[in-house]
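Internal tracking record. Fields below are filled automatically when a chain is submitted to the structure queue. Please do not edit lines marked as system-generated. If the sequence contains nonstandard residues, flag them in the REMARKS field before resubmitting.
Queue: standard
Priority: normal
Entity type: single polypeptide chain
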Amino acid sequence: MTAAAGMKGFVERHKVPLIALKMVLSIGLFVYVVAKVSPGDIWATVRPADPMLLLAAAGLFFLSSLIGSWLWARLLRAQGVAIPYAKAASYYFVGLFFNNFLPSNIGGDIARISDASKHASNVSSVFSATLMDRLIGVLAIGLVAVVASVAALDHVRLYAIYGMIFTVFLIALALFLSIFNRRLLEAFEWPFRAVGWHSVERAIARIMDDLHGFRSERSAMFQAFLASTAVQVSRILVHYIVGLALGVRLAAGYYFLFVPVLAALVSLPISLNGLGVREGAAVVLFQMAGLTREQAFTIPFLTYLISVLISLLGGLIFLLRTPRRALARHLERRREARSSGGEARKE
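SYSTEM-GENERATED OUTPUT FOLLOWS
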């Protein structure tokens, strides 16, 4: 058995226990936070919410997703994968759906890659475009948070948070700049070469080649960064609007500080789509800004529910296209049967 096969077997054997552990951690932490806050107090906070402002928040989240799908399609085109925008948007929303309803932080990306690969000559070009989408997103939200940190430095003394924000931004910037130097990218191939996983090394090398190819796509990269910044700012503002809907009058600058931190914590593969971690961290952070526990819990949780609601559009797209694909396969088989029958009669 090769080392790669052994690692694959290890992952497969421990996949279910790891998912179960994440579920236990998420549900346990969520229940703990709700108990500390009190369900009755949460409902009292939600009940007077302004429905028009909640609708505006949902509309802004939907718009940010449309921009996000355009961004992804633009990066795909830079890799030579031309997908009509409407189709790319449908794949993007299906990805949002799976991000919310699969017990994995990358389930939506896998769905997007699987769908878009039907239009590509190889999977690595789609994978690299999706990876670049993620990297530019981290870089954009990191830059937004850095600007907010600099603006708040003299007024809000949250130096640990500032340190975390600057660290994440610098790491994302370093990774982004590394794509312009192919020799630096070899660092991602070296560990697999060192242990003799040559098939994995070749796959990683192909992805690194594709990423390095972005160096000649400066216009696409600039457009993608602007679009990603618009997406990240929009999603921070969704939190702000949800706060307004709940009657919270908190300066927008706090959201630009705290939401990126929440996004970083949610992206860690330790919970079920951030459930529990998001709410627990939000209670700690937003209480620093003077919010009650109930308000601090409810703002990110309602925002999450809005994202789930919007992502249901992707679930609907996924369900509707399944019968169409089955019908297309059935018709194709009938055409093939008729064609082979006609050729048999001629003989």
